[in-house]
Amino acid sequence: MPSATAGDGLLQRFAQLPSGREKPGRFWRIDLENLAVPEQAAAYTEPVIEAPAIRGGFALDLRTAKERHSEIFARAFGAAVPHNDKKFAALAAASWNTGALVYVPAGVSVDDPIRIVYNATNGALYPVTLVVLEEGARCTVVTEIEGSDGAFVCGIDEVVAAENAQHVFASVQSLPEDATAIFTRGAKPGRSASVSFDAAQLGAHLSVDTLDVNVDEPGAEGTINVLFFPRGTQHVDVVSTVAHNAGDSQSQTLVKSAATGNGQARYLGNIRIAPHAQHTESALRDDALLLSKGAHIDSVPALEIAANDVKAYHGATVGALDEEQIFYMTSRGISRDDAERMIALGFFEPVVERFPTEALRERIRETLAAKAAQ
Amino acid sequence: MSEQGLIIRGLRAGVAGTPILKGIDLTVEPGRVHALMGPNGSGKSTLAFSLTGHPNYAIESGSVTMDGEDLLALPADKRARAGLFLSFQYPAAIPGVKVANFLHAARQAVRPGGLTPAKFRTLLMEKMDVLGMDPAFMGRYLNDGFSGGEKKRLEMLQLAVLAPKYAILDETDSGLDVDALRAVGESVNALRKSEEGKQTGFLIITHYPRILQHIEPDVVHVMMDGRIVKEGGADLAHRIEREGYDVIREETQSIA
Question: Nearest CA of chain B to the CA of A347: how many Å?
Answer without folding.
Answer: 6
